[in-house]
Amino acid sequence: VKEVASLSLVGSACDVVSAAYASTKESQPCLRSVCDAAEEGVQSVTEATASCVQPVLATLEPHVTAASEYAAKGLDKLGEKLALLPKPVEQILSDTKELLSSRVAEVKEAVSS
């Protein structure tokens, strides 16, 4: 989870979603109360679950470690194959807009000629 969260694409996507969520809460008073209630509920469930799950996690720790190592290797291979993963969302959007603009310009030129 830490490795996935450290990817620029994931981190910037989370930042975008977080900013949109905060903006929506600020601009929509009706949604703010619903979001606040949902956040409190999630926090309560998380705290209750953590105490119950801790003994199970201690028992499964060797298996979790092995799965984590396997997932990290898979993530590394995926990162090698997908050049988008280390890029932030803003850069991907910018690159996509540039590519589309150039393709549209090429099509316009081909149509006009």
Tell me briefly what this model is:
This protein has 113 residues and is mainly α.
Portion in beta strands? under 5%
The average pLDDT score comes to 86
Order of helices and strands: HHHH
Distance between the termini: 53 Å
Structural class, from helix and strand content? mainly alpha
Number of strands: 0
Keywords: Lipid droplet
GO cellular component, one term: cytosol
Family: Belongs to the perilipin family.
Protein name: PLIN3 protein
Q: Can you tell me about this structure?
A:
The protein is mainly α. The chain has one domain (1-112). It is built from four helices and no strands. It has helices at 2-6, 8-27, 29-81, 89-112. Helix 2 (8-27) packs antiparallel against helix 3. This is PLIN3 protein. Its main location: other. Belongs to the perilipin family.
Which key terms come to mind for this protein?
113 residues; mainly alpha
Describe the secondary structure blueprint for this structure.
Layout lengths: L1 H5 L1 H20 L1 H53 L7 H24 L1
Helix pairs in contact: 2-3
Family: Belongs to the perilipin family.
Keywords: Lipid droplet
Subcellular location: Lipid droplet
